[in-house]
Amino acid sequence: MPESFIYLDNNATTTLLPEVADAMGEVMVLPYGNPSSPHSIGEGTRGLIEEARKHVAELINAEPEHLLFTSCGSEANNQVILSGLNTSGLNRVVTSSVEHSSVKNLCENLESKGITVEFLPVDSTGLIDLEELEESLKLNKAFVSIQWVNNETGVIQAVGEIAAICRKYNCLFHTDAAQALGKINIDIDSFKPDYLTITAHKINGPQGVGAIYAKNVDSLSPLIISGTEEFGKRGGTENLLGIIGFGKACEIRKRDYNKSILKMAEYRDIFEGIILKALPELKLNGSTIKRVCNTTNIEFPGVDGRAMMGQLDNLDIICSQTSACLSQIPEPSFVLIAMGLDVEAAFSSLRFSFSSLNTLEEAEQAAEKVIEVYKKIKSLFNY
Ligand SMILES: Cc1ncc(COP(=O)(O)O)c(C=O)c1O
After folding, report:
1. DSSP 35-58
2. Which has the least CB within 10 A, 115, 226, 335, 357?
3. Residue 361 to residue 314: CA distance in whole angstroms
4. Model's pTM, two decimal places?
5. Closest listed residue to residue 159, CA positions, set 129, 115, 189, 191
6. How remote is the CA of residue 178 from the centroid of ligand 1, in Å?
7. Quick check: is 72 catalytic?
8. Is the CB of 176 under 6 A from ligand 1?
9. Per-domain boundaries in the chain
10. Do 6-15+257-380 and 18-255 fold alike per CATH?
11. What pLDDT does residue 328 have?
């Protein structure tokens, strides 16, 4: 790993905040018991988990008893969709064509097992058509799972309106809010989804811990069957350190919310502005109006994004092309393809995502390097 680098891949994961690491470190050296144990040491550990649950709940304005911890956002998405089908007895899922692979691949797997899945298309800005959703639900009831914020483009779906449509047709609604947490003011009460899923490592919390909000916790069925942990809905001894870190990261984001999102938006906009001023031929992928504060996805026409990414990496600028979990597959982004880009344009695109730990200098320096690398590669191939 280089000693110093500019990290602009925060939609893949973020660096732990020092305060989060401290909170985890403090707990690490405690003589902690199993949170399910009925003795005082176990109760002490359980108290720490409940404190963390309260902080996570507060960031999304939910009641703590509606939140349960999982090992990650992917597990949360899997459990919610499988539970939703189980509880409702439905055999139909409506989702979008730009979901994270933990929803997309699960839905494809369900399809192969005889569940009907409708993957709603998106337009060139990355948004689903609400009328199309309504038409679909009018015809047949379904379990609906639509992400809040796209991990590659930062495009924000209209979850408030989607939830209302689902209620109108008596359909259960889940939103994957992994990329919305801490970047959008999530207020469960304002749109009342049936389920919402989040993960800690997108807001400078630890990797390997996620959570499910469920309006009706009893409607969840466990993926891991064991004892009474997490209301009997998620077996296995809890990831205490991860949960402590998640709670701390949420507490800090709630405290610093306005400052954090303004900072991310400012640096993303400065970065984008410098690049587009120097290279007006570049295109931004996805809506720039309905877009989360930290992400930009840029198409560099005629240049292979993977080559650019490698060159930037050599200059200690870290960015990405698709989500981390798909980066090992030599295929173009299915999200960009769903938005109508051709294969070449998709391969020519790069995602840059900021966190509250980035600085103004980093945004400016990274933008200059991006311009330099793009011009260099272009000149090599005499475009
Ligand atoms: C939109 C979205 N959903 C779900 C996940 C999965 O979260 P986790 O990495 O905790 O499994 C991610 C992570 O990249 C994501 O971006």
Report:
1. TT-SSHHHHHHHHHHHHHHHHHHH
2. 226
3. 19
4. 0.96
5. 191
6. 6
7. no
8. yes
9. 6-15+257-380, 18-255
10. no
11. 61
Q: pLDDT value at position 30?
A: 87
What is the CATH number that goes with domain 18-255? 3.40.640.10
CA 122/CA 336 separation, integer angstroms = 10
Strand partners, 92: 116
Find out if CATH 3.40.50.620 is the number for domain 6-15+257-380: no
364: left (phi over 0), alpha (psi -120 to 50) or beta: alpha
Q: Using the mean position of ligand 1's atoms as its centre, give its distance from the Cα of residue 324 in Å.
A: 9
Q: According to the model, what pLDDT value does residue 71 have? A: 98
Q: What is the enclosing helix (H) or strand (E) of 176?
A: strand 173-176
Could you tell me which of 110, 109, 120 has the C-alpha nearest to residue 90?
110
Rg of the chain's alpha carbons, rounded to an integer?
A: 21
Ligand 1 closest atom vs CA 201: 10
Which of 179, 204, 161, 147 has its CA nearest to residue 16? 204
Ligand 1 probe mutation, 10, 74, 297, most atoms within 8 A of CB: 74
Backbone dihedral angles phi then psi of residue 358, each to the nearest 5 degrees: -70, 160
Q: Other CB atoms closer than 10 Å to residue 176's CB: what's the count? A: 31
- Give the residues of the chain that fall short of pLDDT 70: 1-2, 323-329, 382-383
Burial degree of 91 (CB within 10 A; 0-12, 13-18, 19+): middle
| 23-43 tens-digit pLDDT | 999 999 987 899 999 999 999
Residues 6+ apart with CB under 8 A from 5: 316, 317, 318
Inter-residue contact 360 to 306 (CB < 8 Å): no
